[in-house]
Amino acid sequence: MTTNTQQTNVDLDEVAKFEALASRWWDTENEFKPLHDINPLRTNYINERAGLEGKKIIDIGCGGGILSEAMAQHGAQVKGIDMGEAPLAVAKLHLEESNLEIDYERITAEQIAEREAGQYDVVTCLEMLEHVPDPASVIRACMTLVKPGGHVFFSTINRNPKAYLFAIIGAEYILNMLPKGTHDYAKFIQPAELNNYARKAGLEVQHMTGMTYNPLTKVYKLTDKDVSVNYLMHTQKPTA
After folding, report:
1. Quick check: 230 and 160 in contact, CB under 8 A?
2. pLDDT tens-digit map of 153-201
3. Which of the residues 72, 78, 147, 160 could staple to 100 if both were Cys, CB 3.0 to 4.6 A apart?
4. Measured at the alpha carbon of residue 152, what is the angle toward residues 149 and 153, in degrees to the nearest 5?
5. What is the 3-state secondary structure (H, E, C) of the chain?
6. What is the CA radius of gyration of the chain?
7. pLDDT of amino acid 4
8. In whole angstroms, what is the distance from residue 230 CA to residue 50 CA?
């Protein structure tokens, strides 16, 4: 990993999007409602496959701390990192309400991987890869951070016409579930691409599941049969 990669693998426009919305991160009825709605599904998926209690975890791209807090509530020792100052400030402030202990820091995945290699039982990087210039670099950093035998979880959005229709046209322009411009279709990642990135980094893919949304019932669910839009991937670092 080079210092140049560490400095350049941040899209300042993407950071600015979430900086502007930071004050509403914990408003469950505003722009971040979808994140709050899917958070129990994400947290349970991680807990079922890796076990959160007593584990040392780093949450890459933690934003305002929604996932970080949920994992801490399950008994994990959590560190959250992000490059947005405002979301991190909101995350730290919210700890005063939740009475949880989480260590938040403004730093890139690549930078902290150099400092804390092999120190974490679980690494999570959810809804973040589609917001950086070089997702493969982040995935390599996740591989570096996790202990041998440890677990790494990713989630992102597939790149195909259905995903464009649902994640951008539907969610941002029709249903107004997300602010317009939240996502850039060109940065979406197909499952085969994420699988390839993970394997090249040295991670073994264990499982993949899709996350679907029914706009009529307003219910999210996980289903292994449909990874056409949002999906989660569980990977593991070999023990040797």
Report:
1. no
2. 999 999 999 988 877 887 766 666 666 767 788 899 999 999 999 999 9
3. 72
4. 145
5. CCHHHHHHCCCHHHHHHHHHHHHHCCCCCCCCHHHHHHHHHHHHHHHHHHCCCCCEEEEECCCCCHHHHHHHHCCCEEEEEECCHHHHHHHHHHHHHHCCCEEEEECCHHHHHHHCCCCEEEEEEECCHHHCCCHHHHHHHHHHHEEEEEEEEEEEECCCHHHHHHHHHHHHHHCCCCCCCCCCHHHCCCHHHHHHHHHHHCCEEEEEEEEEEECCCCEEEEECCCCCCEEEEEEECCCC
6. 16
7. 44
8. 21
Asked if 151 and 49 touch (Cβ cutoff 8 Å), the reply is: yes
How far apart CA 20 and CA 52 sit, in angstroms, is 32
Contact assessment for residue 44 and residue 97, using Cβ atoms and an 8 Å cutoff:
no
Binding residues for S-adenosyl-L-methionine: 42, 61, 82, 126
Token pair 């989630």 is found at 155
DSSP bridge pairs for 210: 223, 231
Binding residues, by number, are 42, 61, 82, 126
Phi, psi (deg, nearest 5) at residue 129: -60, -30
Residue-wise pLDDT for 223-239, tens only, equals: 999 999 999 999 999 99
CA distance 43 to 69: 10
- Domain boundary assignment for the chain: 12-158+186-237
Q: How far apart are CA 178 and CA 139, in angstroms?
A: 26
Residues 54/60/65/66 CA torsion (nearest 10 deg):
-80
